[in-house]
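User: Reviewer 2 asked us to show a designed sequence for the structure in our supplementary figure. I'm pasting the structure tokens here. Could you produce the per-position amino acids so we can include them in the response letter?
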């Protein structure tokens, strides 16, 4: 009887010990710990467009020498009466304006670039404005206008050349910088020819350039002289 009781006691103890061991057994974890990162990634919506920088870099500002070199090329073309070569310097959008005196006007004639090349051979009498002294209309072919209001003296050999600084001064208003804001204006100047006139027979030719992207284009030719 004692032996059976002892066996039953040992069996119950053995069963209890097995249950305790099963309840304390470590269970595997199904979620792995993510490796931390210092990099920040901004969330992007899958429907949002990606922003692209489309800003066009500003064109470099031309040096003073670059402008003077460009003007020298234009004056050389004028001296040679090579209007085809001159047309390659003209702004393709604005064309070329001709002003017989310092005061630039909206009514001054403007020729598109594709007509500039043929101007010297054009026999049309154009009205270029009015003579300062009389108010009579300036009615001339381009060739005659060229001889009187563009290349009436040898400007390619002018003794004075300046950028954005007026040399010839008379009673005529010079509004070139107001009419052409931000323009680069090169003036070719003769202070006079006959001493008896004490400099009142001076002549100036002003070439007006405007920059588009990285190119200097000719947009205006202004003739100037003493006016009373």
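Assistant: Here is a per-position design you can include in the supplement:
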């Amino acid at each position: 009887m004692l032996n059976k009781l002892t066996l039953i006691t040992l069996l119950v103890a053995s069963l209890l010990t097995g249950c305790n061991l099963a309840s304390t057994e470590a269970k595997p974890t199904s979620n792995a710990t993510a490796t931390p990162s210092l990099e920040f990634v901004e969330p992007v919506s899958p429907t949002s467009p990606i922003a692209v920088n489309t800003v066009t870099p500003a064109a470099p500002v031309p040096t003073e020498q670059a402008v003077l070199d460009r003007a020298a090329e234009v004056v050389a073309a004028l001296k040679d009466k090579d209007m085809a070569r001159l047309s390659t310097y003209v702004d393709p959008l604005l064309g070329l304006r001709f002003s017989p005196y310092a005061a630039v006007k909206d009514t001054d004639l403007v020729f598109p670039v594709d007509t500039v090349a043929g101007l010297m051979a054009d026999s049309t009498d154009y009205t270029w404005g009015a003579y300062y002294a009389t108010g009579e209309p300036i009615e001339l072919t381009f060739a005659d206008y060229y001889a009187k209001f563009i290349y009436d003296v040898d400007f390619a050999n002018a003794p004075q050349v300046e950028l954005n600084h007026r040399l010839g001064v008379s009673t005529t208003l010079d509004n070139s910088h107001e009419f052409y804001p931000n323009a680069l204006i090169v003036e070719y100047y003769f202070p006079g020819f006959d001493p008896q006139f004490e400099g009142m027979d001076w002549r100036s030719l002003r070439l007006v350039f405007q920059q588009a992207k990285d190119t200097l284009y000719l947009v205006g030719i202004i003739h100037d002289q003493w006016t009373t």
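For the response letter, you might also mention the following. The mean pLDDT is 81. Residues 77 and 86 are 6 Å apart (CA to CA).
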